[in-house]
Specification:
Elements (H helix, E strand, L loop, with lengths): L2 E8 L5 H10 L4 E5 L12 H6 L1 H20 L14 H26 L2 E4 L1 E5 L3 E6 L2 E12 L3 E3 L12 E2 L1 H4 L8 E5 L3 H12 L3 E6 L10 H14 L3 E4 L1 E8 L4 E7 L2 E7 L1 E4 L3 E3 L32 E3 L10 H15 L13 E3 L4 E6 L2 H6 L4 E7 L4 H5 L6 E7 L5 E8 L2 H13 L4 H5 L10 H10 L9
Parallel strand pairs: 1-2, 1-6, 2-3, 6-17, 8-15, 9-10, 9-15, 10-11
Antiparallel strand pairs: 4-5, 5-6, 7-16, 12-13, 13-14, 18-19, 19-22, 20-21, 21-22
Helix pairs in contact: 1-4, 1-8, 3-4, 3-6
This protein binds flavin-adenine dinucleotide and adenosine monophosphate.
Flavin-adenine dinucleotide (FAD) binds next to β2, α2, α3, β4 and α8.
Length: 474
């Protein structure tokens, strides 16, 4: 007889581990199967997010931002520090410590919540059974309900095969221990821009090759234009749009990249190349063939709006299913699916999932942008407020960026909020809450915001929708 649980979760990323904890809170005897191992071959919970994604990238973004400030911004505050020395291995070690603490923290949370952690590759078998394969061998478990949270993995392109030496993916890009002189990045998406920024701040000459002509297509145009100007002119990132990488050739210590740009073939040589061309659902070997699990045309596990797969009692969440590949979206689905199993009626509002790009300045948004409002033929109005007119922002020596608000012209309901500026990642939460509560711009305008704070820019943007911002000419 195989060991039986109420719920088995496969995958302990932010979708799966949160689902497991919520299941345990709801009284289910829960197990979570995960195969991730650290460099020493030890189990490491937390998935992509904790091991090679959100957390380590933010640790390095923060360290490198401090270097940038010491080299270029302290002076404006009257602080001189002389030559700034950077110990990259120490920076990487600090990042690894943070990762280690957090991944161990998940193990602690599992223990405290009585979630059974099982290490190995989990595979769904017929009859709601899960076969787990590890170095120790193979064991089979069964459960009344199974949650597939197998996440995603980097997309590899044959024109630049990752060798984890000269050509690296996001994991390798977080472990470079010597600043490359010339760094190439393929893809100017969220990950490419964040990782490109890290190494640019640490002294690499960074060239980002992006196949699309538009810069950050999902971002409101007014903001993406200003962001592009800041990254290129202000920070020296060489962003080549419309540059399709067609090949690469590695030598002993460099990699030559070929790309087409404006109809012509170009080559460029780098000391390191980061491939950041997106991620795909990681469904390899997640279910035995005879289970008949339906995978959609984009390789994701097919789910309905209750996160149910085509197999009764089997659910799927996070990067492995439709929707934005974001940790907080996966976690929210994790909570929802546990509550669905418990017979509750949770709801994940995919229209209010915030997006953040942790460049400097940060970019964050929720809801629709102005281009989408136009495409949808909506009767809309907009308001904006520049951080250059916000006292707190100036006190921080932050002069760029803006808050832009889009609202329904008839009902005044907030449809989208877009922020380019300092701490945009934190500021966006107010907009998310407003939209979750179906607030109007008038609601935000009538809410008292502390002075002096960056959040006053949101307040002023709401006032500006109605032509009554106080600290700018409307
Ligand atoms: P994952 O985190 O991918 O976890 C899946 C887990 O399941 C892994 O541990 C995997 O080993 C395990 N697994 C898979 N298949 C099996 C199996 N068959 N058996 C056992 N175990 C299995 N998102 C944000 O919201 N904010 C950010 O700032 C952010 N930054 C990022 C930066 C980088 C560099 C990258 C790469 C990603 C970033 N993301 C960010 C995206 C975020 O990491 C993902 O959206 C999130 O990790 C998805 O969570 P998940 O639980 O669905 O999957
Ligand atoms: P994201 O999906 O946000 O991580 O972004 C990945 C980016 O990589 C997208 O904007 C793609 O257009 C870009 N991309 C994919 N393949 C190539 C390629 N061969 N050359 C240049 N850019 C690419």
């Amino acid at each position: 007889m195989s060991e039986k649980f109420d719920v088995i979760v496969i995958g302990a990323g932010p979708a799966g581990y949160v689902a497991a904890i919520r299941c345990a809170q709801l009284g289910f005897n829960t197990a979570c199967v995960d195969k991730w191992e650290d460099k020493d071959g030890k189990p490491s919970l937390g998935g992509t997010c904790l091991n090679v994604g959100c957390i380590p990238s933010k640790a390095l973004l923060d360290s490198s931002e401090k270097v940038e400030q010491a080299e270029h911004e302290f002076e404006a505050h009257g602080i001189s520090v002389g030559n700034v020395n950077v110990d990259v291995p120490k920076m990487i070690a600090r990042k690894n410590d943070i990762v280690g603490n957090l991944t161990k923290g998940i193990a602690g949370l599992f223990k405290a919540n009585k979630v059974t952690a099982i290490h190995g590759h989990g595979k769904l078998l017929k009859g709601k059974q899960v076969e787990v394969t590890s170095k120790e061998g193979t064991a089979t478990y069964s459960a009344d309900n199974i949650i597939l949270a197998c996440g995603s993995e980097p997309i590899n392109i044959p024109v630049a095969p990752v060798d984890n030496n000269l050509i690296v993916d996001n994991a390798g890009a977080l472990d470079i221990d010597d600043v490359p002189k010339r760094l190439g990045v393929i893809g100017a998406g969220v990950i490419g821009l964040e990782l490109g920024s890290v190494w640019n701040r640490l002294g690499s000459e960074v060239t980002i090759l992006e196949a699309m002509d538009a810069f950050l297509a999902p971002v409101d145009k007014q903001l993406s234009r200003e962001a592009e100007r800041t990254f290129v002119k202000g920070q020296g990132l060489d962003i080549k749009l419309g540059a399709l990488v067609t090949g690469s050739k590695t030598a002993k210590k460099s990699v030559k990249v070929t790309y087409t740009f404006k109809g012509e073939e170009h080559t460029e040589t780098f000391d390191k190349l980061i491939v950041a061309v997106g991620r795909k659902a990681n469904t390899k070997d997640i279910a035995a063939e005879d289970v008949g699990l339906v995978i959609d045309e984009r390789g994701r596990i097919d789910v309905d709006n209750q996160l149910r797969t085509n197999i009764a009692g089997v659910y799927a969440i996070g990067d492995a299913v439709k929707g934005p590949m974001l940790a907080h979206k996966g976690s929210e689905e994790g909570v929802a699916v546990a509550e669905i199993i418990a017979g509750q009626q949770p709801h994940v509002n995919h229209d209010t999932v915030p997006w953040v790009i942790y460049t400097h300045p940060e970019i964050a948004w929720v809801g629709i942008n102005e281009e989408q409002a136009k495409e949808q033929g909506l009767n809309y109005k907009t308001g904006f407020f520049p951080f250059a007119a916000n006292g707190r922002s100036l006190a921080m020596n932050e002069k760029g960026g803006r808050v832009k608000m889009i609202a329904d012209a008839d009902t005044d309901r907030v449809l989208g909020v877009h922020i380019l500026g300092p701490n945009a990642s934190e500021l966006i939460s107010e907009a998310v809450l407003a939209m979750e509560y179906s607030a109007s711009t008038e609601d935000i305008a009538r809410t008292i915001h502390a002075h002096p704070t960056l959040s006053e820019a949101l307040h002023e943007a709401a006032l500006s929708v109605d032509g009554r911002a106080l600290h700018k000419v409307n």
